[in-house]
Request: fold
Amino acid sequence: MTRFIIRRLLSSIPVLFGIVLLVFVLARVIPGDPCTATYGEKATPELCAQFEIRYGLDKPIYEQFVIYVGAIAQGDLGSSIKFGRPVTDLLLERLPVTLELTIVALIFASVVGITLGLLSATRRNSPVDVLTMIVANLGVSIPVFVLGLLLAFVFAVLLKDTPFTLPPSGRLTAGVSVKPLVDAWGLTALEGPPRAILDFASNMYVFNTLVTGQWSALADALKHLILPAIAVGTIPLAIIARMTRSSLLEVLGLDYVRTARAKGLKERSVVIRHGMRNALLPVVTVIGLSLGAFLSGAILTETIFNLTGMGKTLFEAIEGRDYIVIQGVTIVVALAYLIVNLVVDVSYALLDPRIRLG
Reply:
């Protein structure tokens, strides 16, 4: 197992390098000029010449790439053109928002999707099965931006002043605040990487309020996450439900399942202990690949629900031709993909003992 993980990590290095190279080149060949996007009508030739010198854009593209890779090797992702801040600081500040949204949406999509798929497979061709597949097909068909606007309209406008009303934007209600972990734990004198880790965790409001016992703020933060999580998690949920159904139906038709039933095992035990464990192998793969749907959907979701996370930051960076932020976010997303794929591969051996990751 250890050798497998080390081998996968080493093989990920050229993949990550290729992604960085591809994004670096594409960001510079697309139409648009960061100087014009930054200064607008005030962008004179002299000002743009100084702008290019300041950010190293006057150098040949291969030289820019060598400089950028060298900076990455030292842990420096550069400074944003649009925001005028180090990209690392932006990541530490805004990545927790997207990470929190992704985790909540992933839990929602996985739990509900697997449950619906299980119910549909065990009640094949019943009204429950038909209704579940209709819901799954609708979930796949509705774009994130349409569903997000519909949810905001229904729960914030139509159901306003009812027990079912939900906030349509932001992370917290006005007047509600979350105390940072360093203040809650009396660690204000802490510095260096430990302080950065605690500050990063502090920006994940659900985790922060949960571990520090800020229950009113926790309830408010969760309430603000419901609509964005549903919006970004509905498409993966529908895919997971359909995959669970088809995979479980295939497993329930195998010989060892019929043998288990012939021995007199209860149907619940046959489905849960013998069927679901093998049926989950392709489902786990789908859940891992759904990370892309969460991250790409976060761009639209965070814009609709006014969440200042990596999705909204990336949207603003693309709009302003901020190459440095685009590259930094891409590296983080690529690393997330590689880690998730590694976790998925390792989970195969845990779900099915016959699989050996030697």
Summary: The first helix runs from residue 2 to 29. The two ends are 6 Å apart (CA to CA). The chain has 16 helices and no strands.
